[in-house]
Structure formats: C-alpha cells, structure tokens
Amino acid sequence: MSSSNRKKAETLVAVLFPGQGAQNVGMGDWLVANHSVARARFDEASDILGYDLADLCRQGPKEKLDQTEFSQPALFVVAVAAAEVLVQIDPERLANVTAAAGLSLGEYTAVYFAGGLSFADGVRLVQRRGQAMQAAADTLQSGMASVIGMELPAIEALCQECRGDGEVLQPANLLCPGNVAVSGHQNAIEQLVKRGPEAGAAKVIPLAVAGAFHTELMRPAVEKLEAALAEIPIQDCQIPVYSNVDASPHTSAGEIRELLAKQVVAPVLWGQSLSAMIEAGVDRFEELGTGKVLRGTLKRVNRKFPADGFGDGP
Asked: Is a pLDDT exceeding 50 seen at residue 2?
C-alpha cells in the first residue's frame, strides 16, 4: 500500500486545548493522584512559578484560581499533563495527530504539543502572558460575556447599542454558531446583559475573566508579551497549529511568535478553525485538559463529527 493510500485509511486526529474560563477547583486532581508523569509536571511547574500549583488547582480558592495570572499557567499545565498521561496509557488515541489548536491561552498548549516550546519555557511564557493581561485588565473596569442564541450580525448591532461614549464592546471569541463571547468596558457589558434577552439572545452569561480580552483594551499587554516571546525560544512545529488570529495552519516559529502576540487584541476565530481542520481532512477531535466546552462548540459547527476528551477522569 502506498503512503498516500495508507494515510487515507487512517483516522486523522486533531487535538484541542481549553482556554481561560475552563478553570475549576479540583482540575488536575485525578491526573496528579493517579499518574506520576502528571505529578512530575506539576512539581516542575511549581518550582518555576514559585507556588504549589497542584494545591491551588485542588483546593483553590476559586477567587485566586480565576485570576488571570494563576488560571493561565494552571490550565496550561493541566492540559499538558492530560496529553502526556493519555500518550502513556492509550497511545493509539493520539497516534495520528495531524493538527492542534487551542482556545486563546490554549493555543500555547497547542504550540507545546506540536513541538514548538519546551515545557519549562511554556510555563514561563504563559505566566508572563497572564501577568501582562492581568496588569492591563487592572487598569480599567472591563470584562466578557457569552451571548447565546444570536447570530453575529445581530450581536454586532447589539454591541453598538450598548456602547457608551468612548466605550469598547465587540465580539471577541467567535466560538461557534449561536455562541459568541463579547468583550468590552464593564458598563457596556452590564448593558449587554440587561438588553440581550430583549434583543433575542437566549442567554447572556458574564464570564469569569479579568478583562476585555481580544480587544484593543489589551494593547498594554502586547509590548510585555512581545518581550517575553522574544526572550523564550520557539522552534518550528512538527504538526500544524491553527491560529486563533486567522484560522489557518502554521508551523513556522517566526509566524507563530508573531501570531501569539497579535492574538491578545484580535478576535478568536475558533469556529472557523474547527471548520478549517475538518476541511483539511481531520476525522476526529480530542479535547485534552479540563472541561467539555470545546466539544460543545464542535457540535454546533458539525453535530455528527466524532470527538472525545481526556483530563478530568478515566
């Protein structure tokens, strides 16, 4: 059998990694309690971060875990541990991975998985990203909310109605049809929560994030992140990573470095990324880390597409 025919006969897999908002007290506990490779990753990360990451994930408090500077390293390490445990206990599930993607912060885990970052450098990078974004968020009252059950043009019109003078309010995470996260000034978010149901939204749900991510309000974080990205080695990736910025596959270290900096202020094209991976021939998805959010978005993009997850238990 030729290599091209053999590849067509294989089930091609894409791995997905969750982003901020997926964090929960207790995440990673099953991994650490049952698998030495996970314990080793948490211990290594704790030495780099300067605090006991496993304890924070296991016991919280939730208010601390929800803070950007803590939730980003926590989600990165839980997802890495999940991927490495799965490779160890059921290698066939990840035998034919041909693409990787992550939602916002999760894109850093995707770059790690694809061979673009070492684990230690990945921890350092997401810690600095989280600190930079937390600092930018602390300078103003801002946030995010999920708008459920409205199409994008209607959401854009609603955002325009809810913005006050000089305020920002715009779609930031284009998760899937009928589920878009909006970012902006807190007053505008409050107006969105109030007016959304009257405008046709099934729900408007405030998110547990510190600020208006993926808007120009995060511009102060970009310079700090660019400095971190310049200092930390990034290699060409061994499999394509689909960027949040353009929903396209990238392996070049230079392109990935540039896109990771842009990502902080650019809308996340998540639904488009899932569609692009399906069009590229992916047959199945694996969500690695905590939660089921990404599998939920996939169902809205293509309800019949197979997906599984690993990280919260056997």
From this structure: no
